[in-house]
Amino acid sequence: MTDTTFDFRFDIGDDGVAVLTLDRPERLNALTFAIYGQLERLFADLETDPRVRAIVITGAGRGFCSGGDVDDIIGALLNAAPHQTLAFTRMTGAVVRNMLRLSKPIVAAIHGVAAGAGAVIALASDLRVMTRDASFAFLFTRVGLTGADMGAAWLLPRMIGHGRAAELLLLGDKIGAEDCHRVGLASRLVDPGAALDTALELARRFARGPGLALGMTKRLLVNEWPMDLDAAIEQEAQAQALLLRCHDHREFHTAWSERREPRFEGR
Q1: Domain that holds residue 14
Q2: Residue 139 carries which DSSP code?
Q3: Sign of torsion over alpha carbons 256, 258, 259, 262
Q4: For residues 157 and 201, what is the distance between their CA atoms, to the nearest angstrom?
Q5: Which residues contact 237 (CB under 8 A, 6 or more apart)?
Q6: Is residue 263 part of a domain?
Q7: How many independent structural domains does the chain possess?
Q8: What's the DSSP call for residue 4?
Q9: For position 141, what pLDDT does the model report?
Q10: What does the pLDDT look like over 63-109, one tens digit per residue?
Q11: What is the spatial distance between Cα 162 and Cα 159, in angstroms, rounded to a whole number?
């Protein structure tokens, strides 16, 4: 089923995988005010959408996403009141926050360029599949803005280390797919044209899996970053004690006893 209420394509398959395609190829899928707002609401609403168990994000045409649209956004913000500018930057950050808080896995299928806000949206996904000719570029400082935008300075050091993150965010240089894979920014590296198929394969694996366990794992990965060791271990103990008593773990044991594949229901 295709949802036509957005300024991008959003298709929900019978397999529980939703494909979000940024669809402004003539602008390298640059984001507008409307698209930011729609993404913020969508990632919040997906938490309670029973049709969707995993999400793939990709871009139409020759690139993933070039960031905010210069004509639609920058020109308007230069003439905006301070409170309007702050409302916009809070909205863009809320897109990333809602992605991270969503209990359902998100896989980015990246070809061409993922730049600026597009790079941060890919960064906020749980897995990133990149074609060998794709690239990241955290361009903010190159246009006179802080490289710490939309949570990038919180996310990137935790993924690739402080030193490498500082280099990328301060210089704004392009980083190719091979280097992305070497430092851990790319989860999978594939041939040109294969990113979406690989991302869909991963998303279908998530959709067939134990949704409650996957969601808890994603939640703890985020929650434990500011914790000390004792707090993290206690949180994991409580979470695991809960899941040990849930349906999917019991179903695993039943399936193991019956020598069959488990049929997880996400509860």
Answers
A1: 2-208
A2: -
A3: negative
A4: 28
A5: none
A6: no
A7: 2
A8: -
A9: 96
A10: 999 999 998 898 899 899 999 999 999 999 999 999 999 999 999 99
A11: 9
